[in-house]
Amino acid sequence: MPAFTRDVAIIGAGLSGLTAATELRKAGVSVVVVEARDRVGGRTWTGDIDGAMIEIGGQWLSPHHTAALDLVKELGLETFSRHRIGESIYLAADGERHLFTGDVFPAPAATTKEIQRLLTLLDTLAAEVGADQPWAHPRAAELDAVPFPLWLARESDDEYARETVAFYVSGAMLTKPAHTLSTLQALHMAAAQGSYTNLATDTFMLDKRVVGGMQQVSQRLAASLGDDVVLNAPVRRMEWSDEGVTVIADGDLEVRADQAILAIPPTLYPSISFAPPLPRLRNQMYQHMSFGFVVKIHAVYDKPFWRAKGLSGTGFSDTDLLSEIYDNTNYDADNGALVGFIVNEQADAYFAMDADARKEAALASFVRYLGPEAANPTVFYESDWGAEEFTGGAYGVSFDFGGLTRYGASLRTPLGPIHFACSDLAGQGFQHIDGAVRMGRRAAEEIVERRKASVL
After folding, report:
1. Residue positions in the annotated binding site for FAD?
2. CA 433, CA 77: separation in Å to the nearest integer?
3. Binding-site annotation: residue ranges for substrate
4. Is residue 444's pLDDT more than 90?
5. Could you give the CA distance from residue 281 to residue 286 in angstroms, rounded to a whole number?
6. How far, in Å, are 19, 75, 120, 266, 293 from residue 396 at the CA level?
7. CATH architecture entry for 3-42+214-278+415-454
8. Is-above-0.70 flag for pTM?
9. Which of 35, 144, 189, 213 is deepest in the core (most CB within 10 A)?
């Protein structure tokens, strides 16, 4: 039976786990990282699909993602900006195609003004709620009990403005129908990205990519850890007490450690048998957290034909199959690439089709945005994270109504020797690569401080 004895056992070789391991190593703490998959990177995954480099998972960084940007630079990697030159496209509910520039969808002047008013109001509330402890806000329980669309309806009688504002958080970020999200959850998402206006600003969000692919960040961290990263080892059992932990994984792997970090989505904790069982409150909390559902559609072409038409490759729709599309051409590539997203109930309907019908429907949506040339890609690929056994959805986990106020204070609190780290638990950078890095560093700091205190 392979066995390790280390100071810290880390479950999950995504960005949180590998960041934590790297920081602990720097502090002289011995680690082993146990990963269920045959690769590192978690929800970042750069694949070769029919000869094309595809970002199957998370890929973008924005200006406020300073922790992740600093790490990328530290690892010697470079970034490049998303192509935004040209007009963007909005597909209206009536099927009409509108060209526009800037960050605000085409709308009558009164509606545009109302959208800005709502964004200003939400920015103020998001700043009050904050990213780190939204459950501590005096109105937290009230805001956590009100569906976001209902809150918007109380604030505005402009339906288009309400739907547009709701889209930024429900369709573009949390990937759940807006009526399933509390107002507090929406405000937390906004606060975690700096403001609600940031979420609504195309020239701010989804800003930069890593040259050569985002998974390289994890791969370089893992390379520095060497044999202390173990793949193909799903963890099945964790025995824990004040004396330490014993982690048991497939392949007869056993790890004994003083402390552990669970660096996997909290929805996966129930797949591990804990002895003794996790406390009742923790089990309840994880039952009230769930992933959204989004399909990421990739289409690669001989050239970025949309650019010759004066189009940026960016498009949005509240009603079409692909709710967002972007130019996703790789750095210095000769070809062109698009990425589009299908979310919520649209994603449910999409996977009710067979593979040929899905491809036809997705490409038809690209055509409605960009014209007939979009119908014939050289490579077509679906990123379906809902089918990933060791993830279970995308982009991240959020609470149902009331969950954030009921359980939020316990989200990141260590449980005996067990610490918790992943982007789903983050304050700043929540559900983003930046949040994963921040949570990995936070868990490492907790452990280093605890070890210092134990010798005093």
Report:
1. 16, 35-36, 235
2. 15
3. 341
4. yes
5. 9
6. 19, 25, 26, 10, 9
7. 3-Layer(bba) Sandwich (3.50)
8. yes
9. 35
